[in-house]
Amino acid sequence: MVAIGPPDDEVLASVEPAVAGAFGREVRRLEPLAEPAGSRDAARGQWNAPEMLKTLLAARPASAERILGVTGRDLFIPVLSFVFGQAQMDGPTAVISLARLSQAFSGLPEDRPLLLQRARKEALHELGHTFGLVHCLDAACPMSLSTGVVQVDRKGEAFCASCAALVRERTPVAPPPEGRTR
Amino acid sequence: MRATWRILVIDDEAVMRESLAAWLREDGYEVDTAPSGREGIDRARATDYAIYFVDLKMPGGIDGIETMMEVKKLRPDASIVIITAYATVDTAITAMKEGALEYIVKPCNPQEISLLVTRIIKVRKLQRENEILRRRLSGRWHFHDLISKSPRMQEIFGLVKDVASLRSTVLITGESGTGKELIARALHFSGERAEKPFVGVSCAALTESLLESELFGYEKGAFTGASERRKGKFEQAAGGTIFLDEIGDISPKVQVDLLRVLQERRFFRVGGSEEVSVDVRVVAATHVDLAEAVKESRFRDDLYYRLNVVAIHLPPLRERPEDIPLLARSFLERLSHELGKEAEDLSEGALKALLGHRWPGNVRELENAVERALVTAKGRILTEDDFAFLRPVSEAARGWSVPTHLPLSDVEKTVIAATLKRNEGNVKETALVLGIDRSTLYDKLKRYGIERT
After folding, report:
1. Cβ pair B108:A87 closer than 8 A
2. Strand-pair category, B170-174 with B310-314
3. What is the pLDDT of residues B28-86, one digit of tens each?
4. H helices of B141-295, where?
5. Is A38 an 8 Å CB contact of chain B?
6. How do residues B220-254 score in pLDDT, each as one tens digit?
7. Higher pLDDT pick, B305 / B90
8. Where are the alpha helices (DSSP H) in B103-225?
9. Residue A126 falls in the annotated catalytic set
10. What average pLDDT does range B416-438 have in this prediction?
11. For residue B53, how many other CB atoms are within 10 A of its CB?
């Protein structure tokens, strides 16, 4: 896991165990990455999500199966006005944006516990795509599509039975490190 | 798990194309992309996509509106969403007028695009269900190889089922091409004789002596060339059904022989002295008005009554127009498969053209017309242009003056002889052009003494 731009350590600390638990993987944190040059679109006042993914791909250590970036910047993909996050379907990289998950974005008082909860759900959602999961029709599943925070808040923090089964199928237990079997 | 729907994104800008495709893939759709209108059209030709996202401004070659129009030609029911960064009311109106389902301005709100896709897919699902139900419904009108929803034909199908297992002789009357042989086959195959042979004989195609030996067989030495005994059609059909087509054309001598078979179920082979017994169900058919022929002493009344135990009269196609779309679609489905064409349906205009035609050659003519249109058609939907050859005879007739001083039989003879010559003696082709069946043509060739070469 890695922050892109100024890190929000509280968010990272909250997301790490959620990801580890949901995917049965060890989570390590890298040093924060600088925002990629050219990822900012001045006219839109936003940051380009695919550019962020390229940077993450380059920064991924060989030992990491997946890399998840967390940024405070408002992300977009060219065809859409914004995205909460972006992932490579069946690929190794994903990124989430905290910008619109924060109550402050809507002019409301900041609610840190709510932000942490939303960040955990979106992290599971984008990482789910990297394991080939598509949007789920169960509105309570983290894999359901959210186009606004209301839908994010309606989701739970645990995959539905179908998505959980797919995650298990696609995240087989990693082979033990050399020498541990003796 | 939702069913996979296929979406095509056509946009010259790779970043736009790929970001929309990636976003749609996350929603579970199978997404293909094309970097130009031309490639998009090629993809649409190969695959039927549920939704087409088409960028309006694409430099070089064809733009979004033209791409959309080409896709619409290939896939008239395509759901096309025009995407543009240059929103103007004019382009929006043009796009919608040309058949775009929706018009979105990029960058668009994720919720907007998500709702749009969901709504289109919902409509596509309903269309698909409708199609399945329509197919199931059309299955209701199938009876063996016959298709009809006309109440008169449904009544006939009922009668066929009722009498299928009886041994009673059946006389089927109706114009050429109305399906007399199909009814005969349905009689045979829905009855208890289905496992036994069904043997057909076209009485009009053979001379009297040939017909006799064809029907009853012959003994060795019965005539020059009869080097061994040969079973006739009656014997070949033992236990099953013999179908005597164009029974109205048989000679008085054969009429007598047939009467004897029908009365006694026994006959002599040509040149034979030993009687042969058979258990055969006789189904006869004719386009001739036999009752009239009896009145004019051209047909034996006793034979007529023997044949006419169960009478089935098939109405001409023009008297059951409700069957035209049903039959045309059925032929289209079968023939496009047989001919390796990808035609899917008939346009409203094509159906109108078919309904406006009188179909003197009935169902057979309709089948031939669909085949002919299919062979030359370019699109997946057959249009009225593909059936241009059906347009009023007056157009085809231009260039020859209608004779006003000849008996009708002379006109018929002249037309048949000329058509046969033009088709180099090919009877099948000539019958097709004249809109009559081959046996009728043989009959007329014989009657008028027209040589095939």
Report:
1. no
2. parallel
3. 899 999 999 999 999 998 888 999 999 988 887 888 889 999 998 888 888 999 988 76
4. 151-163, 180-189, 208-216, 233-236, 252-264, 290-295
5. no
6. 887 877 788 889 999 999 999 999 999 998 989 88
7. B305
8. 110-139, 151-163, 180-189, 208-216
9. yes
10. 86
11. 30
Q: Could you give the 3-state DSSP secondary structure of residue B55?
A: strand
Closest listed residue to residue B422, CA positions, set B412, B433, B411, B437: B433
Of A82, A135, A147, the CB nearest to B28: A135
Contact residues on chain A for B54, CB-CB shorter than 8 A: none
What ipTM, to 2 d.p.?
0.82
On chain B, the residues whose CB falls within 8 A of the CB of A81 are 107-110
CA distance B182 to A83: 64
Question: Tokens in use for B34?
Answer: 């094309």
Q: What is the pLDDT of residues B266-278, one digit of tens each?
A: 888 888 888 889 8
Are the C-beta atoms of residues B434 and B423 closer than 8 Å to each other?
A: no
Which one-letter amino acid corresponds to residue A52?
M
Look-up: residue for tokens 């990482």?
Answer: A127
In this complex, is the C-beta atom of A39 within 8 Å of any C-beta atom belonging to chain B? no
Tokens for B43, please give them.
Answer: 């993809």
Report whether the peptide linkage leading into residue B107 is cis, meaning its omega lies within 30 degrees of zero: yes
Residue A92 contacts by C-beta under 8 Å, 6 or more apart in sequence?
A57, A60, A64, A65, A66, A67, A130
Own/partner long-range contacts of A22-27 (Cβ < 8 Å, ≥24 apart): A22/A124, A22/A127, A22/A158, A22/A159, A22/A167, A23/A127, A23/A131, A23/A167, A23/A171, A24/A171, A24/A173, A25/A65, A25/A66, A25/A171, A25/A174, A27/A1
What is the per-residue pLDDT for B91? 77
Check CB contact under 8 Å for B25 and A147.
Answer: no
C-alpha angle B390-B314-B211 in degrees, rounded to nearest 5: 95
Q: Which long-range contacts (CB under 8 A, 24 or more apart) does B407-416 make?
A: B409/B448, B412/B444, B412/B448, B413/B444, B413/B448, B413/B450, B416/B441, B416/B444, B416/B445, B416/B448, B416/B450
Burial bucket for residue A6 (CB in 10 Å: 0-12, 13-18, 19+): exposed
Measured CA to CA, the distance from residue A65 to residue B331 in angstroms comes to 56
Question: What pLDDT score does A118 carry?
Answer: 97
Query: Three-state SS for B188?
Result: helix
Could you tell me if B3 lies within 8 Å of chain A, comparing CB atoms? no
Within B35-74, strands assigned E span 51-55
Please pick, among A10, A16, A126, A169, the residue that the annotation labels catalytic. Answer: A126
Q: Is A78 on the interface with B (CB under 8 A)?
A: yes
- Closest partner residue to B25 among A76, A89, A137, by Cβ? A89
Predicted TM-score (pTM) of the model is 0.55
The answer to which of A110-114, B9-13, B84-88, B359-363 has the lowest mean pLDDT is B84-88
User: How many Cβ contacts (< 8 angstroms) between chains A and B?
Assistant: 63
On whether any CB of chain B is under 8 Å from the CB of A80, the answer is yes
Given the structure tokens 């541990």, which residue do they identify? A180
